[in-house]
């Protein structure tokens, strides 16, 4: 059974940094694309970043490009999201995800990120 457990969220001032972690079990992160999504209050869940399995190519939403970095540690079977220059509009619950079928994902429980102005 695949489990994804996020951690590292918290309260930070605008301009600050946080690093989110997603520890996976039941799945080897290097063999699958791993993604981060986020959902702000009253809004739909949106894509943030993805790291592909082969070659480790990365992709980012325009809103976070140049500020966020997705990476993985194969030895720890963990995916990270380094978030720098945080803005109040980055406030959301952040979710780790990995493909389950062609049209669905495994999801973690989410971790809250709050950026104060």
Describe this structure in words.
This protein is mainly beta and 117 residues long. It has no helices and eleven strands. It has strands at residues 3-7, 10-13, 18-25, 34-39, 46-51, 58-60, 68-73, 78-83, 92-101, 104-107, 111-116. Strands 2, 4, 5, 6, 9, 10 and 11 form a seven-stranded mixed sheet that branches. A four-stranded antiparallel sheet has the order 1-3-8-7, with no helix packed on it. Strand 5 and strand 6 form a beta hairpin. The protein is globular, with a radius of gyration of 13 Å. The chain starts with a strand and ends with a strand.
Brief digest:
It contains no helices and eleven strands. It is mostly beta strands and 117 residues long.
What is the subunit organization of this protein?
A: single chain
Strand % is over 45%
How many DSSP H or I helices? 0
Low-pLDDT stretches: none
The best one-word shape is: globular
**H/E order of the elements?**
EEEEEEEEEEE
Main beta-sheet annotation: 7 strands, mixed
From the alpha carbons, calculate the radius of gyration and give it in angstroms. Answer: 13 Å
Helix percentage range: under 10%
Structural class: mainly beta
Rounded to the nearest angstrom, the distance between the terminal CA atoms is 40 Å
Query: How many runs of DSSP E, i.e. beta strands?
Result: 11
Q: How much is the average pLDDT?
A: 96
Topology:
Blueprint: E1 3-7, E2 10-13, E3 18-25, E4 34-39, E5 46-51, E6 58-60, E7 68-73, E8 78-83, E9 92-101, E10 104-107, E11 111-116
Parallel strand pairs: 2-11
Antiparallel strand pairs: 1-3, 3-8, 4-5, 4-9, 5-6, 7-8, 9-10, 9-11
């Amino acid at each position: 059974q695949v489990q994804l457990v996020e951690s590292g969220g918290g309260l930070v001032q605008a301009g600050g940094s946080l690093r989110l972690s997603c520890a996976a079990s039941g799945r080897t992160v290097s063999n699958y694309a791993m993604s981060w999504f986020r959902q702000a209050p009253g809004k739909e869940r949106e894509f943030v970043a993805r790291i592909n399995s082969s070659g480790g190519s990365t992709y980012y939403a325009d809103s976070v490009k140049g500020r966020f970095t997705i990476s993985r540690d194969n030895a720890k079977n963990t995916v990270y999201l380094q978030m720098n220059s945080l803005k109040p509009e980055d406030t959301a619950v952040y979710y780790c995800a990995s493909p389950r079928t062609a049209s669905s994902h495994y999801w973690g429980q989410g971790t809250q990120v709050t950026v104060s102005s």
